[in-house]
Amino acid sequence: EEEEEEEEEEAAAAAVKSSAITNDERDDNKNTTIEVKLNSETKANLENLQGLTRSRNAMLANAKEVLPKKYMNKYDSFSLRGTLYQPKGNLDTLHSRCEAILPSFRKMLTRITKAAGLDPEKVATWQGKDIMLTSKVPYTSLTVAPLKTKARCVEKAENEYDGDVTRLIDIVRASIVVADEDQLLCVAKALQNEKIVRLKNRFKEPLFTGYSDALYNVEIEEIICE
Length: 226
Known about the structure:
This protein is an alpha+beta fold. It contains 7 helices and 8 strands. The strands form 3 sheets. Strands 1-6-7-8 form a 4-stranded antiparallel sheet. It has a two-stranded antiparallel ribbon with strand order 2-3. A two-stranded antiparallel sheet has the order 4-5. It starts with a helix and ends with a strand.
C-alpha cells in the first residue's frame, strides 16, 4: 500500500510539473516527435479512407475532362411533386402493378436507347474495358434490372421510410450507358416525350465519392420508375 501511495504521489507531482511548463519551454519543444500506435482495425479503416480519397480524386480529375457541360447547363434537377409516392395500397398490390408495367418500361427505354444510336444489347465499355454491373455481369447499353424483390422492398421501406412502401420508387429500374455527350443529349431529348416526374442531375452535383449520373424518375400508368 505504501508503494502504491508513493507512485500516486509521484504521478500527481509529474502532472503538476507538466501543467507548469512555460510558453518558452513549449516553444523549445515544437520539434518533438510523438509516436502514435494504431490497432489493426484503425489502420484498415484509414487505408480504406485513403483508397476512397484516391479513387474520388481520380474520378473528379477524369470528370473535369469529359463531363457533359452542355447537358449540365441545359437540364436542371427538379421534382414535380416534392416527395414522390407510389399509388396507395399494400406491397403485394404495388409489386403486381410494377410487374405489369415492366414490359412497357422496357419497350420505352429500348426505343430511347436506339434513338441515341446505341445497340441496347451491346456491352458497355470505357477505355477498352467492360463496365461491370457485378463482378461477373457487365452493363449493356440498356440494362433493365429485375424487379426489386418483396423482401428487399420490406427491408428498404423499414430502414429508410418508416415502413411506408409507397415511398419505394425504384422497384422498376434500369440504366442507359452512353459513350459521349451527344448520345446523352439524345437520351435526354427523347425522355422529354415521357412523363418525367423528377430529375437529379448528378453531373452538376456528384456524390461525395465523385460518382455522377443523370437520375430520372418517369411515370407509367401511375407507377414511378427509375
